[in-house]
Amino acid sequence: MEKSVNYGGHHDDLNLEATKLRLGLPGIISSDIGYEKQSSSASTVVVVRNNKRASPVGIMTQESSSKSHSNVSDARNGDPNSHHQPPAKAQVVGWPPIRSFRRNSFQQKKTDQGDGAGMYVKVSMDGAPYLRKVDLKVYKSYPELLTALENMFKFTIGEYSEREGYNRSEYAPTYEDKDGDWMLVGDVPWDMFIFSCKRLRIMKGSEARGLGCL
Amino acid sequence: MNYFPDEVLEHVFDFLTSHRDRNAVSLVCSLWYRVERFSRQRVFIGNCYAISPEKLITRFPGLKSLTLKGKPHFADFNLVPPDWGGYVQPWIEALAKSRIGLEELRLKRMVVSDESLELLSRSFANFKTLVLVSCEGFTTDGLAAIAANCRFLRELDLQENEIDDHSGHWLSCFPDSCTSLTSLNFACLKGEINLASLERLVARSPNLRSLRLNRAVPLETLQKILMRAPLLVDLGTGSYVHDPDSETYNKLKTTILKCKSIRNLSGFLEVAPRCLPAIFPICLNLTSLNLSYAAGIHGSELIKLIRHCAKLQRLWILDCIGDKGLEVVASTCNELQELRVFPSDPFGVGHDAVTEIGLVAISIGCPKLHSLLYFCQQMTNAALITVARNCPNFIRFRLCTLDPTRPDPETMEPLDDGFGAIVQSCKFLRRLSLSGLLTDQVFRYIGMYAEQLEMLSVAFAGNSDKGMLYVLNGCKKLRKLEIRDCPFGNMALLSDVGKYETMRSLWMSSCEVTLWGCKTLAKVMPRLNVEIINEHDQMEICPEDGQRVEKMYLYRTLVGPRKDAPEFVWNL
Fold first, then answer.
1. Would A191 be classed as within a structural domain?
2. Which residues does the UniProt record annotate as the domain PB1 (chain A) (predicted)?
C-alpha cells in the first residue's frame, strides 16, 4: 500500500499538490482549517468531498511539518502519525450519522442553490455563434450581472426602468423561469431572480423592443 | 384472582396506555392474559421479524392500531444494503385476509410498495391514520390510492421518506366527500403539487390541525391556505420566498395574525429571509420550531427569529447557528426540553459549526433540557462535566463529533471522563450515543452508572473486548446495542449469550467478530436470528470460520429465520 506523501515544508518549488490527480475541483478541504482552537497537530483526519462540485475552500497551509499529512487522494492510507483509531479516511461511510433523506436533501440544496459550487446558467445572445455560461452567485445585483453580460458579449444594454424595460437599447436581457416562461430581467428582487432563473437570453432587435415596450 | 368479572378487569386495563404496562399485565396469569389480549387495540412491534403477522392476529383480534419497525437503525446511515428486507406487504396481506378492523398503521424504516398501499387502502373501511417514517419503495401512485379509497382518512403523515414523485395529481384523488382530514404532511415530496387541489382540500377540511407542505407550495398558496385554516396548530411552510414589498406578502402578514393556534412551526425549505418578519407575531406562541431544513436562514436573521421564541420547548436547528446563536437560545428559550443541532455542511470544513461552548451555554440557560442531539466540531471533557452538572435530567443524550475520533482539543485526552460524568449524573438516561476519542474506560463508566440505559450507539471507540463486556454486564435494561468500527470480538460477543434474549437487537459492523463467533452464537441460541450481511465476494465461496465478519445483526425472534432474506444476508 502506498504510503502517504508528506508535502510539508517543500511546497514552494514543485507545488506537487496542484498537479496531483484527484476527484473534484482543485482545492483541498483540510481539517486544519476547521480546528483553529487546536494548538497542536493531533487530529489529521482529512475530509474530502467526493461531490465533484466541491468548492475550492482553501488550500491547506503547509507551514509546519507536524501538521501536514495530506491523504487527499488515497482514502485508505493510514496516517502513521495519527494517534487515534481509525487511520485517517476521507469521508467515512455513514459518518456523520445523519439520515440519508437529510443527507440527500442537503446535497440537492447545494445543487439548487449552487452553494459554493456556483450557479451556472447558459447565456445565449441572438446572433452570437455560441453560448456562454455565467455563475449567478458571483453577482450581488442586477447592475453587476448586466455589466458582466455587456462585457462578455460586447454590447450595451442601457438602463432598466419598471415602466419601459430596456427600451432605450437594442437589446433586452430575458430569462427563462421555473415555469418555462420568458421574463424580462429586472422585474423581481435579485434573490428571487436567482432562485427562478434557469437560463438567460439576450434578445435583439424588434423582438427585444417588443418586450421592452410592454 | 377471580374476584372481578372480566368486564371489570377490562375496564381497569383500559387505563393502561403504555405498551409495557399492558405487556406486564398479560404476564400475571392466564386470566389476565386472556382479558388483556381481547381488549388490546394498540400494538407496537419494534422489530417486524421478531413475530409473524399471523401470530399477531391470533393473539389480538381486536387490533386497531399497529406500529412496525423494520430495518436496523444504522440503515439510516447507508450501512445496510438495499433489498435487505423490512417489507410491509406480508403484514398488510395477512391483516387484509383477517377480520381485523385496522384503523392506524405507523411504519418506520420499512419497504412499502404501491401495491401495499393500494391493498391497505381497499381492505379497511375505517382506516384513519397512516404514518410513514424513513420508509421507501413507493411512489405518489400509492398515495393516490390512499387518498382515493380511505373514506374516513384523518392523518397522512410522511416523514423523511424516499418517495418517487410521479406527479402532483395524488392530491386531487381525495374525493370531494373527504372532509375528515386532521393532519397532512407531505413535506418530503420532491415534485410539483396541484395547488388548486390543495386549496380545495384545505377548504373542505374543517378539522385540519396539522399541515406540512413541500417545497413546491409557494408563499401565495400558503397565504390562501392559512385564510382557510386559521385553527392550525402545526404548520410546515413550503417555499417561503417572495418580494417583501408585494401585496401577497402583506396579505400573508395579516393572515398570520389570525393563526393564534400555531404551536409547531417547520419547513422554510426555501426561504427569503426578508420575509421572516411576517411570522414574528406568532413566534411567542411556539413550543416547537424545526429549522433543520432551512439552510437559507443564517447568522443574524436566525438569531433575530429565535429571540422571538421565548416559549420554545423543542428546537431543531442547523449548526450554522454557531455558538453565539446557541448562547441566544440559552438566554431566550428557558423552557427548552429538546434540542437537535444538525450539521449544515457534513463534509466541508471551515464554516461555523458549533463547539462545546454552545452546549455549555445551553446547559446553563435551559435546565429543563432532557433530550439532545448535537453534531459538533469538537467537545471537551470539562464541558461535558459542566453539562452533566447543570442538566441531570437527560433522558436522551446523543453527541456526534464531526471527526469521529477527535480527542478533547484542550487536553488531547479521550472523552471518557466527560461521558462518564454524563452517565453518572443523569440517572434516568435511556439513550446514549458516543463519539470522539474513547477508550475502554468510558464503557466501564457506562456499565457502572447507566442503570436505565436502553439504547447505546458506539462508533470508533474502545481498545479491547473489555469495553463491550462492561456494557453487557452492567446495563441491565439494555435493549438495543449498535456498534461500528470497534475492536470488540468473539470473546465479548460470546461472554453472555443469554443477554441477547433480553434485548431487541445487536448490530456489530467492522469489528473483530469472526464467522466462527457468529456461528457459535447461533448454534447455542436458537431463538436468536444471527444474520451476516455479506456485500463483498470474499465470503461467497468457502468462507473461512476465522474470517472477520463485516456486518452482523442479531435479534431475538419467535419465528425463526426469515424467509425473505436476500442472497447477501446469511442466517446462521
1. yes
2. 118-205
Q: Which residue range forms the structural domain that includes residue A184? A: 128-209
Question: φ and ψ at B32, to 5 degrees?
Answer: -65, -40
CB distance from B158 to chain A under 8 Å?
Answer: no
Model pTM? 0.77
Do A57 and B349 count as a contact with CB atoms less than 8 A apart?
A: yes
A63 within some domain: no
CATH number, position B5 = 1.20.1280.50
The boundaries of the domain holding residue B178 are 44-208
Measuring CA to CA, how many Å separate B230 from each of B176, B233, B255, B428? 21, 9, 8, 40
Q: Do B343 and A98 touch (CB under 8 A)?
A: yes
As given in the structure block, the three cell numbers for residue B91 are 403484514
Q: In sequence order, which residues have a C-beta less than 8 Å from that of residue B523 and are 6 or more positions away?
A: B572
- Sequence-distant (6+) residues with CB within 8 A of B461 are B434, B435, B438, B439, B442, B443, B467, B486
B110 in any annotated domain: yes
Classify residue A25: in a domain, yes or no.
no
Q: How many domains does chain A contain in total?
A: 1
- Is A71 domain-assigned? no
- For chain B, the domain total comes to 2
Name every chain B residue with its beta carbon within 8 A of the beta carbon of A99.
76-77, 134, 160
* CA-closest candidate to residue A99, choices B217, B100, B136: B136
Output the CA torsion sign for B534, B536, B542, B548: negative
Domain final position from B151, B178, B208: B208
The reply to whether B414 falls in a domain is no
- Closest Cβ–Cβ partner in B243, B346, B457 for A98: B346
